Amino acid sequence: xxxxxxxxxxxxxxxxxxxxxxxxxxxxxxxxxxxxxxxxxxxxxxxxxxxxxxxxxxxxxxxxxxxxxxxxxxxxxxxxxxxxxxxxxxxxxxxxxxxxxxxxxxxxxxxxxxxxxxxxxxxxxxxxxxxxxxxxxxxxxxxxxxxxxxxxxxxxxxxxxxxxxxxxxxxxxxxxxxxxxxxxxxxxxxxxxxxxxxxxxxxxxxxxxxxxxxxxxxxxxxxxxxxxxxxxxxxxxxxxxxxxxxxxxxxxxxxxxxxxxxxxxxxxxxxxxxxxxxxxxxxxxxxxxxxxxxxxxxxxxxxxxxxxxxxxxxxxxxxxxxxxxxxxxxxx
Length: 332
Ligand code: CP
Ligand code: NVA
What we know:
Blueprint: H1 17-36, E1 53-58, H2 64-75, E2 79-84, H3 96-106, E3 109-113, H4 117-126, E4 131-133, H5 141-154, E5 169-173, H6 178-190, E6 193-197, H7 206-217, E7 225-228, H8 231-235, E8 240-243, H9 255-261, H10 269-275, E9 282-285, H11 296-299, H12 306-326
Parallel strand pairs: 1-2, 1-3, 3-4, 5-6, 5-8, 6-7, 8-9
Helix pairs in contact: 1-5, 1-12, 2-12, 3-4, 5-6, 5-12, 6-7
The structure holds phosphoric acid mono(formamide)ester and norvaline.
């Protein structure tokens, strides 16, 4: 890569533990400043993207990612340009190479939601402006910055330079997917343990396990990854229970097969009790939620922080766009 190549955010794996910590801290700081004060945008953000356009190429639906990134860009005075799959030639009728060159010649950044991760990696390879992954089949970094902000709010941010999350335990019950992979990578970096229960045939692929193990090697105080087929085993001693849909976008034709394979994996209060979660356990889900993976009683219950987690997507997007677009990848 040339010394002038922009820095991209394609996965939490692209961040050092200190950088991930800073992105979460900055998100917290911006949330606090904007929500608790007069509502004014801090001067470091105000007009930071004035006169600039950010292309948002989305080949799949989105509520939270679209609204939070458009909102973040608007907060900084920039113009988000949403380009859905029927609007532009994203890998259809035109190569990703050509699209990357054209988009980056006219914009300050590209926020891209794609199917295969190679699509966003290709865009990044050829783009002359920063590319931010807004979800691929492998990673969802903006979600994970918001998730660690949410966890840090429940387990208050320590005053030291770390987030003070070391030793917490996350239990992921359900499908091994894009959200899990970046969450596990982030957990390794922040010293958070994560135990993952998936049904047979739906485990973390070997290559991804290697990526997660590598993330652990980047941290002076790494978290541990534990895998099991038994939800109760994963839940034992967990502070936070997390899941996501069993049928990700693009897997719709496998719906019947998946619903059958994941029987017994629905998060309920009864399962949390049987598994021996900590008394203070909380529940997280990136949304959109489907009824199978979590009972209404947990999802809408007092332990659930899912709507706070959704709101935190805005603060995470502000933090990430500030770092990668305004500050050109300098995370401080
Ligand atoms: N969590 C999340 O990324 O939601 P959307 O698909 O609605 O953007
Ligand atoms: N795993 C889900 C996440 C959506 C935000 C999907 O890829 O559809």
